[in-house]
Amino acid sequence: MTRRIALAVAWRSIHNFLTNPAFMVPAIVFPLFFFVAFAGGLSAIANTPGFDFPNGYTAFQFVFVLLQSAAFGGVFTGFGIARDFETGFARRYLLAASNRSGIVAGYALAALVRALVTWTVLTTVALLAGMDVGGSGVDLFGLYGLAVFVNLAATLWAAGVAMRVRSIQGGPLMQFPTFLVLFLAPVYVPLSLLSGWIHAVASVNPVTVLLEAGRGFISGEATQVALAFALAVVLPVLFALWARGGLKRAEAAG
Amino acid sequence: MSPGLSTQVGQLARRSVLRTMRQPAQIVPALIFPLFLLAVNSGGLKDATNLPGFPTDSYLTFALAVPFMQGALFSVMNAGTDLARDIETGFLNRLALTPLHGAALLSGLLAGAVVLGLVQAATYLIVGLTAGAELAAGFPGALVIIALSVSITVAFGSVGLFAALRTGSGEAVQSLFPVFFVFLFLSSMALPLDLLQTDWFHAVASANPISYLLAAFRSLLIEGWDLGALALGFGIAMAILAIGMFAASAALKTRLVRT
């Protein structure tokens, strides 16, 4: 039953995404834009002393943009949940669904499909732009696997906020912490080249581990794989609890 | 300016300033977001100063130009959204029934952008200098930076007014934000033009007026007084303002006919 609810909710969200350019175009264009701006505009950074990433700056930035698009795919799904509450559609979901966890699962499934569309376009553009991939098929499976977990974690985080606030005005609450945690990681250079407060913050930021593992996958040099996947599993579990709390609040609010 | 026109501008300017100051949701993100990016970028890209030809040994000084541009981008949203709300709520329709001059409406609405521009510029400068950025042009340079920042903020605000009058929708104005961000990212925001290695990116950034607005700020922060860079910066700001006001005036005529 839960599966049927999840599939029904997911189908509606995916249909809205694929048929409404206002949803689909930004989801595809923004990651591409970040990729172009970072990989194109900052390519000289690869010449700085100590920058030793073997596959070039394009591949280095691709991993960040991939994980960023995974996270923001989840956040944008949170916007959709908030909009459904604003319009009253989510209340109909709550009335109709016998197992309401299936609603959250459906949104998460839709977020993943959205992300897969974005990643397909992003990867194609990166390869056409001459991105050097050193990793094997298994490594790339690991990279996209990490991205799936990041997408799930971000969706559950945003869903928890959306179901508590139940208004699109909660958008900044979903977006800003995600933005913050992503950009307080080694975005432009490896962790070893950061110094001062940003190094201290990035050293304890879990996104750093995910980024370094992802960059290890694309270069074919495994880095912190076990820790990255442990985090990738723990984060969605924690945010699932957060989302469950949000669902209970929404149920209580009627 | 005739007494009647100055009264109209004054009344609308007062309303615009009060409305801006009473909306922390407009002011706070316009202050916090650029400073956050300044902190992150100046920490993350510090090693870029080791590149041969980088104009300063302080990336913070180089990056301090960027918040002024990001702050100006917020003025597009703020000025445009306020006017769009006036259209959506019917306030513009009521104004249309009065003998209000179109120029007074547009000038008055930009008063809020002027105040926000002043607050932003002073905040970015104080925070930047406190954090260790250099200001080669000294105190007079600080005044010119504030003047340039306000000019750009007002110029971009006029584009926001045009967007609001053309679309009549606050949501449409908000959706312009990423478009303007594209202009910022495809400029010499992170590295000087000379150090942009990717050919197409170098070509786009060289043709992007934002690069020259950034260069005007950087001339005062890094070099001292470069009159050519300053003239170009102020010239571009004035050109954007002239185009924005012309387009907004035309859109206002159409909007008033529609209503």
Q: Which two chains form the greatest contact, residue counts included?
A: A-B, 32 and 28 residues
Determine the structural class of chain A based on helices, strands and strand pairing.
Answer: mainly alpha
Largest β sheet strand count, sense and barrel closure of chain A: none
The share of residues in extended strands of chain A comes to under 5%
The end-to-end distance of chain B, rounded to whole angstroms, is 28 Å
Q: Number of helix segments of chain A?
A: 10
Rounded radius of gyration of chain A (Å)? 19 Å
Helix content of chain A: over 70%
Oligomer: heterodimer
The chain-level mean pLDDT of chain A equals 90
Main beta sheet of chain B: none
Unreliable residue runs of chain B: none
Tell me the series of helices and strands of chain A, N- to C-terminal: HHHHHHHHHH
Distance between the termini of chain A: 22 Å
Q: Please give the number of β-strands of chain B.
A: 0
The proportion of residues forming helix of chain B, as a percent range, comes to: over 70%
Query: What global shape of chain A is seen?
Result: elongated
- Number of structural units classed as domains of chain B: 1
Structural class of chain B: mainly alpha
| Overall 3D form of chain B | elongated
Total DSSP E strands of chain A:
0
Show the helix and strand layout.
The complex is a heterodimer of chains A (254) and B (259).
Chain A (H helix, E strand, L loop, with lengths): L1 H18 L1 H21 L14 H32 L1 H8 L4 H28 L8 H29 L5 H13 L12 H9 L1 H14 L5 H29 L1
Chain B lengths: L2 H19 L2 H21 L14 H5 L1 H25 L1 H6 L5 H8 L1 H20 L7 H30 L2 H5 L1 H10 L13 H9 L1 H15 L3 H32 L1
Helix pairs in contact in B: 1-6, 1-7, 2-4, 2-7, 4-7, 4-8, 4-10, 7-8, 8-12, 8-13, 12-13
